[in-house]
Specification:
CATH superfamily of the largest domain in chain B: Thiamin diphosphate (ThDP)-binding fold, Pyr/PP domains
Structural class of chain B: alpha/beta
CATH class of the largest domain in chain B: Alpha Beta
Bound molecules: thiamine diphosphate, magnesium ion
Shape of chain B: globular
CATH class of the largest domain in chain A: Alpha Beta
CATH superfamily of the largest domain in chain A: Thiamin diphosphate (ThDP)-binding fold, Pyr/PP domains
Distance between the termini of chain A: 45 Å
CATH topology of the largest domain in chain B: Rossmann fold
Number of domains of chain A: 2
Largest sheet of chain B: 6 strands, parallel
Strand content of chain B: 5-15%
CATH architecture of the largest domain in chain A: 3-Layer(aba) Sandwich
Radius of gyration of chain B: 24 Å
Order of helices and strands of chain B: EEHHEHHHEHEEEHEHEHHHHH
Number of helices of chain A: 12
Largest sheet of chain A: 7 strands, mixed
Oligomer: heterotetramer
Number of helices of chain B: 13
């Protein structure tokens, strides 16, 4: 067991996979010598050579587009977009090919690859460096969309994503990259993609979140317990496509009250899907409207004001208290 | 510190061997075995006939919108001929002759235009990609395929086709740049058929040739008569050999013409004159090739009649195959992931219940505490 | 008053705007001489010249990207993507600039433009020609997203979009392009963007839809009345960003039962947002779970099977009967 | 039907006037009024000093991540100088010297790197665009701006900057293609500073020059010494004049070097050696220009000292402006649409209630029939 940051844990998962399978490639802008702008791929080029950990010219569409061709030849590319905001340069390949080839060719070509990118706000970065586009990708059938919330599940989920026969969009919450360390077992482990977890058991209300806002939500749960005598159950979705509908409904049927928390803008965000799944399956258990504590339907502000914009524990506490007292 | 010209190190060439009257430049004439010449003609003819039948079937409402390839049979065929079976072929959507050469069942082609994914379920063991609809996006996965050849150190080559319109897309540019940076065995063929739907070649780009776009990547390139099978075979052999030998990507501009409408949904009368089309009818690659073979005594009326009969039979059979193809109404759920997710399974059950009546357990599936169905 | 198809009505709206304002430009692939592959821009180049109705080279990103620059100079570009499936080639400009410039420059540059594209399935087209990406665009703050459902509202909404100071994504349901004619008044009219309409008044259940599935929904309402004695209210959202939350909740509070219908895939679709808005504002009025009748979470099949995939009146009827009998 | 070379009609040129030791090629020396030369030097120096201060402020945590432009002051400045005020300037993000020349308040630049949108709220009446973060995307709106000049038949020109890395993006290619097809007054300047973060120029593209990418669009192009203000002014004057005269878009590759880290978040030691950087330090555009001016007796220690003092004062004031800049915590709601939508107004109310306590009517806003708040 070692105490690792999320960056180290992700690095470990890739190193393990590259050592096990010569078909695993890492590619992207500055992933090689530089080890990635967040150092997530640090040392991989040194260890596996420039043909396994590949620095590419500056073109996201070509990174994704050429990776598609590599999958046809049996490679498993782990591509990195340097920031969430630049994944859109490649959107037509992800939408138009990566998620479609299996269906289009009835399984002949399947595009198994991992599309990694730093995700979300909170690190005082420039415009286009703080986006949270998980709903955009979750709406695209054929992809799986994963968001870890800590070093240990990051390592396990990345391994699962690499082993997955399906393309996986893997969002790495950059606010958590170095936020804390966690014990990570020596042996590789996996986590099933599409399953969430109970991050904190409780009985009064269900708080549903994922990625970086899971931390704010857990903080809120402590504050709710300490100061409001509210025992919140906190769910960590870990994956938003597929989404763990059973986990959600099980908890909701117990508590009858729900707050959904994510940093992406609210309108047509994943929070809405969570609400819809609850209404479809557990409407009659609901004792209060479901509140969404999310990013606002604006552009996330340049960094001087981003903290105001992002969901935080205080916002979650307020919404939860109102939900419980409804 | 003078002001001086920079010499370009790359070269452009023009190649034409068999003219529109069937005259051949003997110095340049490629060596092709007689049997191969006949087979090439056979495939070109078969492509033409299948294309014509598709057009007819579209008019009869038996397939959907159809995009004909009439007059563009020579270039894909020349390249397919020069390729090895294990080489990779990445088409756009007017490369029927290459599919035919490489042994695709004709029925699959009909199924594609008939609106079923089976048409792009590439036969196992055939290193081809299906028709690609988003213009120029295929350039990028072709580059990835070629890159794999280099990374695997096998000696396969990837041949990719794109249209004149496709060269305007960023995908074309990025793929060419990657291809030259990594020096991969990619042969990129631009079929300049002078039109992108209604946009004439003159408005697609201001560069006098498409070939010279290669200079942007530090490459040589060639313009060839894309309606001349001999030029196509020659250019294909050379470029594929260079690519295979590690000389990196190759760019070929094949000059041809879209004789027909863009697709059957298109009406070229809206944007071009008959006079523009007329001279191109005389440059038909099939007629020219026929003349060449007749001059060489490799073709006569009898052989041709036989060929036509065999081809008709094969196409008839393909149509029978197509028209008897069983559509599975639920198959679209099956190939989204290797294993169907529970969510998709539930949606499939929903659809089945709708089409076939509710399955026994449906009424309880909603899971709300009080459930009462009518 | 003239009886027009939607194609003619849209053409009329553009012709009127171009005649009124020399800054209005139409641009896209084949929009000029050819009049667009659906003939929506027919005759505009003839009438206004090749500098007002502009045939572009084949590059969607450049169509959107150069249009941005044109707005800085006071032009109002109406850009056409030839099909919904190719709008993604330009996604980085729409996401990264069109919707952001106003905020980025605090109103100095504002990118007013209309992004038109044929929308949805049902015309036996090829792959990538039948997509329904409204949720993808609705999730992008800074855009308005409009979907007409008939010739008259198409003409009015397109006029409103052209007059709008904000960028508008305008989805034209291709199944409706020539499906029916409607009286369209001689004088130009507008409709407020962000407001829906009651397409059919009713009291037992609220069916919420827009674009082409509005027709299937209205057919379903007739069948429900005739065969099931259910009096359905049908709402036509017309806009999914902003979305007419008040209209929705007003109807829901009356009927207590809801079915949402759209052809886009279900997961993270607009239907989920509709459910969330109802739960937020009208939970206690709900008497049954809300059903979503939508495209499935798959790629829309090649056209031989697309009818099976698309929502139709029968699916709406079944879901509504179940909802009413819940 | 021979096989023959195709002659390229476009020309590439190389231009260098003032060498790294301050020697000038007198035949090529551009005419620049003495006052202008001094002003140019002043702006170059001011840019250098502001850049240095930003770096320091970043280290002190007073601004965010900073991307220095040290060593790249000459090219943007040369072009800004040759532009008219009404011409349009479209930067990437290392073109501070042009902003300074064109009269941007220095404080705005600090506010940008300090993380507030006010930093890209272009001053009214200034035909500039703000810093552009998505690499090469600016090429396309620059093309649109230039197109507008042509459509409006005014005689403004648009000058756009992009990096060596940016040329690999599809956006660059599509913009250049559109620009040549419509023959618009666009001057595209590629600042080849040899690095794109950690990727050296040699791995960005296989073409020996960036200038030759112009051939893909049927254009002439030029490589200039981008650290030589005289070459920059000359190339700028020529290319801007050509563009203004209707000769269509122009492509200039300006050779320079990124002396510093990519941004303060970057550690160049990971990927390049001091030895590679060293020779470029000697090519510093500022020192070279200083030598030139001193040789011309337009600069001496006294003038320079005065300049430095004035510049320090102006920068100090800018920093005061920046540090007193009042952030409005709610402003991000205000510029999404011309009129705030009811939905956004509700979200704004929600945020205000959270930060400032509930407004009186909040408890009823939910609209559910029974509302009971704690
Ligand atoms: C990305 C994209 N944009 C638009 C279209 C619609 N479209 C289909 S074919 C075509 C013209 C293609 O021209 P070209 O590349 O010259 O090929 P050709 O049809 O002449 O073979 C267009 C615009 C598309 N399929 N993909
Ligand atoms: C589309 C996009 N992809 C990635 C990035 C991240 N990024 C910022 S600067 C940079 C390198 C740019 O290199 P170059 O164009 O040469 O400009 P320079 O920094 O050298 O001035 C990268 C990859 C970005 N800003 N935009
Ligand atoms: Mg063409
Ligand atoms: Mg650079």
């Amino acid at each position: 067991m070692a105490e690792l940051t999320m960056v180290q844990a992700l690095n470990l998962a890739m190193r393990e996979a590259m050592a096990e399978d010569p078909n695993v490639l890492v590619m992207g802008e500055d992933v090689g010598k530089d080890g990635g702008v967040f150092r997530v791929t640090d040392g991989l080029q040194e260890e596996f050579g420039p043909d396994r950990c590949i620095d590419t010219p500056l073109a996201e569409a070509a990174i994704a587009g050429t990776a598609i061709g590599l999958t046809f030849r049996g490679f498993k590319p782990l591509i990195e977009f340097q920031f969430d905001g630049f994944s859109f340069q490649a959107f037509h390949h992800v939408e138009g090919h990566v998620r479609r080839f299996r269906n289009r060719t009835r399984g002949r070509y399947t595009c198994p690859m991992v599309i990694r990118m730093p995700y979300g706000g909170g690190i005082r970065a420039l415009e286009h460096h703080s986006e949270a586009p998980e709903a955009t990708y979750a709406h695209l059938a054929g992809l799986k969309v994963v968001l870890p919330s800590g070093p240990r599940n990051a390592r396990a989920l990345l391994r699962s994503a690499i082993l997955s026969p399906d393309p996986v969009v893997f969002f790495e919450p950059k606010a958590l990259y170095r936020a804390f360390r966690e014990e990570v077992p020596d042996e590789p482990e996996t986590l099933p993609i599409g399953k969430g977890q109970v991050a904190r058991a409780g009985k009064d209300v269900t708080l549903i979140s994922y990625a970086a806002t899971l931390r704010a939500t857990l903080d809120a749960a402590e504050e709710l317990a300490d100061e409001h005598d509210i025992d919140a159950e906190v769910l960590d979705l870990l994956s938003v496509s597929p989404i763990d509908e059973d986990l959600i409904n099980e908890s909701v049927r117990k508590t009858g009250r729900v707050v959904v928390v994510h940093e992406a803008p609210r309108h047509c965000g994943v929070g809405a899907e969570v609400v819809a799944r609850i209404v479809e399956k557990s409407l009659l258990y609901l004792e209060a409207p479901i509140r969404r504590v999310t990013g606002y339907d604006t552009i996330i502000p340049f960094f001087a004001n981003e903290k105001t914009w992002l969901p935080d524990a205080g916002k979650v506490v307020q919404a939860t208290v109102e939900t419980v007292n409804f | 510190m003078p002001r001086e010209a920079i010499e370009l190190t790359n070269k452009l060439e023009n190649l034409s061997i068999l003219d529109q009257d069937g005259n051949v430049d003997e110095a340049l004439e490629p060596k092709i075995a007689d049997a191969d010449l006949r087979k090439l003609y056979n495939v070109m003819l078969k492509t033409r006939r299948l294309d014509e039948r598709c057009l007819m079937m579209q008019r009869q409402g038996r397939i959907g919108t159809y995009g004909p390839c009439k007059g563009q049979e020579a270039t894909p065929l020349g390249f397919a001929y020069a390729m090895q079976a294990e080489d990779w072929f990445v088409p756009s959507y007017r490369e029927l002759s290459a599919y035919v050469w490489r042994g695709w069942p004709l029925g699959k082609y009909l199924v594609w235009w008939g609106g079923n994914e089976y048409g792009s379920a590439v036969p196992e063991g055939v290193n081809d990609l299906p028709i690609c609809v988003p213009i120029a996006s295929q350039c990028q996965y072709a580059m990835g395929i070629a890159w794999a050849s280099k990374l695997r150190q096998d000696d396969t080559v990837c041949v990719c086709f794109v249209g004149d319109g496709g060269t305007s897309q960023g995908d074309f540019h990025e793929a060419m740049n990657f291809a030259t940076v990594y020096n991969v065995p990619l042969v990129m063929v631009v079929q300049n058929n002078h039109w992108a739907i209604s946009l004439p070649r003159s408005k697609q780009t201001a560069s006098p040739t498409f070939a010279q776009k290669a200079i942007a990547y530090g490459m040589d390139a060639m313009v060839i008569d894309g309606n001349d099978i001999l030029s196509c075979v020659t250019a294909a052999r050379e470029s594929i050999k260079k690519a295979r030998d590690g000389q990196g990507p190759q760019l070929i501009e094949a000059t041809t013409y879209r004789i027909m409408m863009h697709t059957t949904a298109d009406d070229p009368k809206k944007y071009r004159s008959e006079e523009e089309v007329a001279p191109w009818l005389k440059k038909d690659p099939l007629i020219r090739f026929e003349t060449y073979l007749r001059n060489k005594k490799l073709l006569d009326d009898k052989i041709q009649k036989l060929m036509e009969e065999e081809i008709k039979k094969e196409i008839d059979e393909a149509i029978v195959f197509y028209e008897n193809y069983k559509h599975d109404p639920y198959e679209f759920f099956e190939h989204m992931y290797q294993e169907m997710t529970p969510e998709l399974a539930a949606q499939l059950a929903e659809l089945k219940a709708y089409r076939e009546g509710p399955a026994p357990e449906v009424s309880a599936s909603n899971g709300n505490p009080q459930v009462s169905h009518a």
